[in-house]
Amino acid sequence: MPRITLPDGTVKEFAAPVTAAEVAASIGAGLAKAAVGAKVDGELRDLSTVLDRDCALAIVTPKKREGGADADALFLIRHSTAHVMAEAIQRLFPHVKLVYGPPLETGFYYDISFEGGKAISTDDFPAIEAEMARIVAENRPFTRYELPAAKGMEKLRAEGSKFKVDNAERAQEAGSTTLSWYATGAPGTDWEDLCRGPHVPATGKIGAFKVTSLASSYWKGDEKLDRLTRVYGTAFATKEELAAHLTQLDEAKKRDHRVLGKQLRLFHIDEMVGQGLILWTPNGSIVRQELQNFISEELRKQGYTQVFTPHIGKLDLYRTSGHFPYYRESQYPPVIEHDQLASLAKEGCTCGELANRLEKGEIDGYLLKPMNCPHHIRIFASSPHSYRDMPVRLSEFGTVYRWEQSGEIGGMTRVRGFTQDDAHLFCREDQVADELLGCLSLVKLIFGTLGMNDYRVRVGLRDPDSAKYVGDPKNWDKAEEACRTAARTLGVPFSEEPGEAAFYGPKIDFVVKDVIGRSWQLGTVQVDYNLPVRFDLSYIGADNQHHRPVMIHRAPFGSMERFVGCLIEHFAGAFPLWLAPEQVRVLPISEKSADYARELHAALKAAGLRASLDESNDRIQGKIKDASDMKVPYCAVVGPRDAEGRKVSVRAFGTEANLGEIGFDAFVDGLVREYRTRGAETVKATMGK
Ligand SMILES: [Zn+2]
Ligand SMILES: [Zn+2]
HSE-up of 63 (CA within 13 Å, CB side)? Predict the structure, then answer.
């Protein structure tokens, strides 16, 4: 008599064992039709699973109730499509042997061995997809059957695929006493594959699919073993979702900051300089400097003061802060002075001893700074502070160095040296809430100006069951509440994540979604009860006593490298005027308008704009294309008629047609206004387009 508890809490009782599909049907015909699988006590299963005892059951359908695609449904659909693709490939290329075909986050793959036979190429994709479409149209059921392990192994050995024999052996090592197959149709007659499942009930549930790419791989990832071909594909419940996904992939490729960074000459990574070390070329430096100017202006308005600190500090500083030796793995090795090295060499000190003595503090040296906080702390500690001076807000675009494994680095997003938009706030306990609000309002302003309005925050709180946290629990309560309140005032979605706080304080993280829907984890605002104690910081209170300040670390955009990398992709390299390395290019139509073009160019430069002049002998169409390739926001096309009337024909990047004509001075003034207002007022708008 199974009693089945549904997600809304209702309980259904059945007189005899039922399948998940039957339960779905008993709830409604619509649900039964949409169902692709079931979750039984939290485990994803086939819809045909027999429920013979009490359990919790959720019917899996492609659409989530709150909107969007259901991840479990996609998993089932993709894994099922992998089977369909494998069958199609085997029908077209009977000599291939199947190895392994798991679903992935955005699709699936199947590793295939061609064993000297003809390998497939992307030219074969249409034929494979046509075959798959036939299998889907036949709407054949996925039928599971099981054999005891010994009998199953016998069957696999008779079939002669070492790959499947190996898969089965590993399943048994993992504790399976039976082996299961899924036939696409009827066992014994239709195509089948050794598989744990689960699957959608029938091939007709696969809404839309595509074979996407090929790669080479090795059996078990081992170069010494068989060379395999990995065939990638993806599948969705509907054609619309597949189309949206393919468009996004295409867009992502076009926006890749590593590709655009080269094309637009924004940054360079040089083997001679070192992996993961970004060289900001002149164009990228302009983007960074404009952003830094913007952030600095806002910080000044918020009462921050600017500091500069060196790139290294004594090991003792980091012993006090706790950064050394605890985070040794993610730091460059210490730098030791010549004299000390020489005397150590004379003593015959080995490398092992050296490391040991460095850790113990018997040898001094320097560290490339992994964090800016210790330097800022020493600035705060260098003068006495009264409660009236608080908070003290020290900001610096501070460069730090972290050792990343070489496999992990690439482009601007994983690097070994980067510049944080860093600041440290030293405040009284009663000021924490306001300071957090200030940090978040800055983030809101900057994201708003950049048109990144789709972002969310994560509030990292204590794990209620852990005792690892430093500081007074009452202060923690207040700080956590302040984080929540600050997040709420942003008016964007936020999630509370218990257990995600650092041992020294709660934090707020920012995750921004770019225009094509990908998430970028940026920076953080973090309350700290620990470092003020380690460095014995204090201020003099109204009671004339020493009090401990609270620290807030904040680098809301993370690093300039990561943030600019994200912006390159967000804007697809077409920066708004205020950030664009080249803001306007003057294009004379012919020699006849060359003098006028030079005059315009000079006026634009004198107004402080980053203007250039194309005096080449190219035809005007060619000049326009060159400017467009570099994604220059505005082109000023000038011919003899423009010169006569002291006008400019304006083209804006990304707009097919000419914007029309505008007077010489109005154009220069309009661009200056667009630059100064960071795009709040545009030339385009004044021209009515
Ligand atoms: Zn399978
Ligand atoms: Zn810090």
Answer: 10
Catalytic residue (choose from 78, 164, 257, 402)? 402
Angstrom CA distances, 47 to 15, 16, 139, 476, stand at 19, 17, 16, 47
Q: Is 275 a catalytic residue?
A: no
Provide the residue type at 622 as one letter.
G
Contact criterion met (CB below 8 Å) for 508 and 460 = yes
Calculate Rg over the CA atoms of the chain.
32
| 621 has catalytic annotation | no
Q: Locate 482 and state its tokens.
A: 């302040």
Q: Which of 507, 562, 610, 651 is catalytic?
A: 507
Beta-sheet pairing, 267-269 with 278-280: antiparallel
Q: Do 365 and 337 form a contact (C-beta atoms < 8 A)?
A: yes
What's the pTM value of the predicted model, to 2 decimals?
0.77
What pLDDT sits at residue 171? 85
Residue 373 a catalytic site member:
yes
pLDDT at 65: 67
* Distant-in-sequence contacts of 183-189, Cβ < 8 A, 24+ apart: 183/142, 183/143, 183/145, 184/83, 184/84, 184/87, 184/135, 184/140, 184/142, 184/143, 185/138, 185/140, 185/141, 185/143, 186/143, 187/143, 187/145
Q: Which residue has the higher pLDDT, 349 or 369?
A: 369
- Is 422 considered catalytic here? yes
Query: Mind spelling out the 3-state secondary structure of 647-679?
Result: EEEEEECCCCCCCEEEEHHHHHHHHHHHHHCCC
